[in-house]
Amino acid sequence: MKRWHQNNELEAKVSALEDDLDEDIEMEDESKYDLEELSKEKEKEKRERKRERSKSRERQRSRERERHKKDKDRDREREKDRERDRDKERRDKEKRERDRDRRDKKRDEERKRR
């Protein structure tokens, strides 16, 4: 009877150990999935941050392109204005010279008549 009692005790202990082992394995599997989910979440967050940085860089480049384009357009306008001013100055100068030449010619003709 003593042996039978010892056997029962051993079987109970073995059964308890097997149950514990099964629980540990289940917990390991669960924690493995938790780690995988956590890893997936971290990866997703990392991709999200990367995407945000990429968008931010693209916005920055876009702003720089716009700024560059505006600067270029402004420079063109300034150059056009300068060219217009030079043309006007040149025409004004030519007109003054013609007027002066006419006055001189008219004066010379009047002198000849006398």
Automatic annotation (TrEMBL):
Q: Where is the composition biased (Acidic residues)?
A: 17-29
Signal peptide, first to last residue: none
Give residue spans, biased composition: Basic and acidic residues.
Answer: 1-12, 30-46, 55-65, 72-114
Sequence ranges assigned to domain Pre-mRNA-splicing factor 38 C-terminal in this UniProt record: 13-104
- Mind telling me which InterPro entries this protein's record contains? PRP38_C (IPR024767)
Stretch list, region Disordered = 1-114
What domain of life is recorded for the organism?
Eukaryota
Designated name of the protein: Pre-mRNA-splicing factor 38 C-terminal domain-containing protein
State the organism of origin: Rhamnusium bicolor
